[in-house]
Structure formats: structure tokens, C-alpha cells
From TrEMBL:
<dbReference type="GO" id="GO:0005886">
    <property type="term" value="C:plasma membrane"/>
</dbReference>
<feature type="site" description="Transition state stabilizer">
    <location>
        <position position="212"/>
    </location>
</feature>
<keyword id="KW-1003">Cell membrane</keyword>
<comment type="function">
    <text>Involved in lipopolysaccharide (LPS) biosynthesis. Catalyzes the transfer of 3-deoxy-D-manno-octulosonate (Kdo) residue(s) from CMP-Kdo to lipid IV(A), the tetraacyldisaccharide-1,4'-bisphosphate precursor of lipid A.</text>
</comment>
<feature type="active site" description="Proton acceptor">
    <location>
        <position position="68"/>
    </location>
</feature>
<feature type="site" description="Transition state stabilizer">
    <location>
        <position position="136"/>
    </location>
</feature>
<dbReference type="GO" id="GO:0009244">
    <property type="term" value="P:lipopolysaccharide core region biosynthetic process"/>
</dbReference>
<dbReference type="Pfam" id="PF04413">
    <property type="entry name" value="Glycos_transf_N"/>
</dbReference>
<keyword id="KW-0448">Lipopolysaccharide biosynthesis</keyword>
<keyword id="KW-0808">Transferase</keyword>
<dbReference type="GO" id="GO:0043842">
    <property type="term" value="F:Kdo transferase activity"/>
</dbReference>
<dbReference type="InterPro" id="IPR007507">
    <property type="entry name" value="Glycos_transf_N"/>
</dbReference>
<keyword id="KW-0472">Membrane</keyword>
<comment type="pathway">
    <text>Bacterial outer membrane biogenesis; LPS core biosynthesis.</text>
</comment>
<dbReference type="GO" id="GO:0009245">
    <property type="term" value="P:lipid A biosynthetic process"/>
</dbReference>
<protein>
    <recommendedName>
        <fullName>3-deoxy-D-manno-octulosonic acid transferase</fullName>
        <ecNumber>2.4.99.12</ecNumber>
    </recommendedName>
</protein>
<comment type="similarity">
    <text>Belongs to the glycosyltransferase group 1 family.</text>
</comment>
């Protein structure tokens, strides 16, 4: 049982949140100015609904950003296939667009309410979910407490805890216990994640594997792909994807080092497209000619860099190459998901800071489909070697495809774990039309 001190801390969090609730307008305005909020749907962040509640049982899914949204999309489709309504909340404009593109009108999308009691209470009172399913590592104290107070089962799926997050919670064991005791079930990505959740007081905990492995390959525009391939012709290509600050400059350095010997085209796809003006300035300062996807610039022989400054087109960019460096790993920390390049037939390179995807990289590296580079010089050598050695590149690509196949099965395991919570809702969904009639 959690300590009195922890419960007092949660109570204080609740009242402080209530007190600052009228003052969060400037915060949301700042986010809107940065393109991180949709001004037209700002009221949703206060818990106000902008769509009617579907009849019958309803599951609330929450996925913070694009990666989590993509990961739970197959699970949401399975829940919908069973006749159960779904409201999906996300926290970013990019994930909202991905949700609409991949799930359509059959799922209600809302922006997640602020983790303040008035907003959370208003959201729950309107939607009245029968079950809350939260993706990966979203731990919002007020939301968890309010769901627990209403006796709404809440399940973490594809759950993970980074080294930093786990260390932070371990310093507050009573507070962690007071929160995690509200969870009906944790379905973790790995044994390491499962042990961490158990340490923090979550029970029961099971392991499913990574739901991201069971997703479809990212979609693409076939016409755009044909046009780009025609423009590229016989040129060699490599991609630096999901890059963070400093990694685009590294890609430029690699391109300058290799362009003379290989007639190279480099594809750079920043994790945050709003940074692309600054990224273009950095690359052009090196004397490189940049073509941008949003401008429709053709890939003439003089173009050095294709700057992927769009959202939801990773499937297009990765289909233009067979070598991909995955960012947030060379200078930033945590890493990004390497599964999409692996499933689309790319040899994967990465920096060493991949703590958030440790198990995935271990599997890919063990099977020979991913290589870790220490610095920019090693990255340049790795790109050059893979472009020049067809057998090695093809071997890594084949190993990646095999690794992805071996890791599949998380969706089936997750659905199995959810059965005690989903099966009653299936029955309820079948009875709802009769009750209305």
C-alpha cells in the first residue's frame, strides 16, 4: 500500500492543477504558435468534446505521438472489428493527421485533455469509456487517478520504461506505487521493461513483444515514387532519417566526403519538419544543393540533398534507398525506431545512443542487419562500404527482413492479454442494438 506522503503529494498535484487550470491559455497559445497545437480544436485540450459519443461500449486509446499511434493502429482495428467503439486521443498535430489517414472515420479522434482535474473530469464524464488503453510510457498522474476513482480499467500496452524514466521513478517508490496500483494490467515490450514495471508496483505484468513490429510497412505515393526513381536513375542513395539537431550536419559532412567518388544523392528526413528551414540553411552553407519535397523540386543531377520536409511519407523516402542511418542516436539520446527501414529493405546504421530501442537494436545487430557507428567519420565509412559492397548490403537487408518476421506476434499476445476486458464489451456491443430497439 502506498504511503500517506505519496497520497498527499497526489492530492497536492490535483489541487495545484485545479488552481492553474485558468492560466494554461498562454501555454497552449505558445504551442499553437510553434505548430504543436491545432487552434481550431483547442477546446479539446480542456476536455470539451467536438464529436458525438458512439453508442454502446467504448474504449479510450491514448497514443502520445506518431510512433505510438502507428504502433496501436492494428490493435485499434482489431477492437473495432469486434464491434466496439473507439475514441483515440493524441498529443500532437502530426499524430492527429496520421490517425485520420490510417483509421478514417470509424474511429473518433480527439486531442488528449490536459492532465488537470477539470479537463480530465470533463473528458471522462462525456465519453464514459468502459476501458482505457494507454500506449508505451504515458504516465499522467491525474488521468490515472481519475480513471481509478471511476473504476475504469486502465491497461498499458506496448509498455516500456527508458533508463532515465525508470531511475526517476525509483527515487519515488511510494509515489510510483500509488500510481501503478491503479493499472489493471501492464503489457510490456520486453522482459527488462516488465521487471521495471513490477519493481515500481505494477501487477499483473505480461510481455508481448513490440507492437511496432506487427504494423504494416509505412505507405507511400506510387506516382511520386516512380517519378523520383526516374529522376535518380543510376545514382547511389542513402538516407538519414528521424534526425535531430547536429545529425543533419553530419549527413552533410558524409555527403561531401563521398560525393566525388559515388555520384551520391543523400536523403535527409528530420524528425521534426518545422526545423527544415534551419536544416536547409545548414546544408546550403556547405555548398550543397538542396531539393525539398514540399516545393516539388526535381532531383536533377546537380542536387546533392533531398530534404524530406513532409509528414507521413517515410515510406516514400525509405523506398528510394537501401542504406538508412536512424537518428536521435549520434548526438541526441534515446534512438528512434529502426523497424520501418528494416521492414522496407534497408541496411540499418545508427549511433550508439539507442537506449529507448535497446532490445530491438540488439536483435537486429545479433542477426547482422544493423551496425552501430561511433562518430561521423565511422558513419561515412559505413555508408561508403555498404554502397560499394552489394553482397554485404544485400546480406544486411535479408537479415533485417528475417529479424522483423521473427519478432512478430506482439499483436496476438496483446489481444490475448486484453481478452478479460474486451470480451464483456463484445457481449455489450451485441446487446446494445436490441436495447435501443
Amino acid at each position: 500500500m502506498s504511503s500517506l506522503r505519496a497520497r498527499l503529494a497526489l492530492s497536492a498535484y490535483r489541487w495545484v492543477g485545479t488552481a492553474i487550470y485558468p492560466l494554461v491559455g498562454p501555454y497552449l497559445s505558445l504551442r499553437s504558435a510553434k505548430g504543436k497545437e491545432d487552434p481550431a480544436r483547442r477546446r479539446e485540450r480542456y476536455g470539451h468534446a467536438s464529436a458525438p459519443r458512439p453508442d454502446g461500449p467504448l474504449v479510450w486509446f491514448h497514443a502520445a505521438s506518431v510512433g505510438e499511434t502507428v504502433a496501436v493502429t492494428p490493435l485499434i482495428k482489431e477492437i473495432r472489428r469486434r464491434g466496439i467503439g473507439v475514441v483515440l486521443t493524441t498529443g500532437t498535430t502530426t499524430s492527429a493527421r496520421v490517425a485520420v489517414e490510417r483509421l478514417g472515420a470509424g474511429v473518433v479522434h480527439q486531442y488528449v485533455p490536459l492532465d488537470l482535474k477539470p479537463a480530465v473530469s470533463r473528458f471522462l464524464e462525456y465519453w464514459q469509456p468502459d476501458l482505457a488503453i494507454i500506449a508505451e510510457s504515458e504516465i499522467w498522474p491525474m488521468t490515472i487517478v481519475e480513471l481509478g476513482r471511476r473504476h475504469i480499467p486502465q491497461v498499458l500496452v506496448n509498455a516500456r520504461l527508458s533508463d532515465r524514466t525508470f531511475a526517476r521513478w525509483k527515487k519515488r517508490p511510494s509515489l510510483a506505487d500509488a500510481l501503478f496500483e491503479n493499472l489493471a494490467l501492464v503489457i510490456a515490450q520486453s522482459d527488462v521493461d516488465a521487471d521495471r514495471f513490477r519493481t515500481l508496483g505494477a501487477l499483473p505484468v505480461m510481455v508481448s513483444g513490440n507492437l511496432k513490429v506487427d504494423t504494416d510497412a509505412p505507405p507511400h505515393d506510387p506516382q511520386a515514387l516512380r517519378e523520383y526513381r526516374q529522376q535518380i536513375g543510376s545514382r547511389r542513395t542513402w538516407a538519414a532519417i528521424s534526425t535531430f539537431e547536429g545529425e543533419e550536419n553530419a549527413a552533410g559532412i558524409v555527403h561531401c566526403a563521398l560525393k566525388e567518388r559515388s555520384n551520391l544523392l543523400t536523403i535527409v528526413v528530420p524528425r521534426h519538419p518545422e526545423r527544415c528551414d534551419a536544416v536547409e540553411a545548414t546544408l546550403t552553407a556547405k555548398g550543397l544543393k538542396v531539393a525539398r519535397r514540399t516545393r516539388g523540386d526535381p532531383l536533377t543531377p546537380e542536387v546533392d540533398i533531398l530534404l524530406g520536409d513532409t509528414i507521413g511519407e517515410m515510406g516514400l523516402y525509405l523506398r528510394l534507398t537501401e542504406v538508412a542511418f536512424v537518428g536521435r542516436s549520434l548526438f541526441a539520446e534515446g534512438g528512434q525506431n529502426p523497424l520501418e527501414p528494416a521492414m522496407l529493405g534497408c541496411a540499418v546504421l545508427s549511433g550508439g545512443n539507442v537506449q529507448n530501442f535497446r532490445e530491438t537494436y540488439q536483435m537486429l545487430a545479433k542477426n547482422g542487419s544493423a551496425k552501430i557507428v561511433r562518430d561521423v567519420e565511422m558513419l561515412a565509412k559505413g555508408v561508403n562500404y555498404l554502397l560499394a559492397n552489394d553482397d554485404m548490403r544485400r546480406s544486411m537487408i535479408d537479415a533485417g527482413l528475417e529479424s522483423v518476421q521473427q519478432m512478430r506476434g506482439a499483436l496476438t499476445a496483446t489481444l490475448k492479454g486484453l481478452e478479460p476486458y474486451i470480451n464483456p464489451l463484445i457481449v455489450k456491443a451485441r446487446l446494445t442494438p436490441r436495447a435501443e430497439s
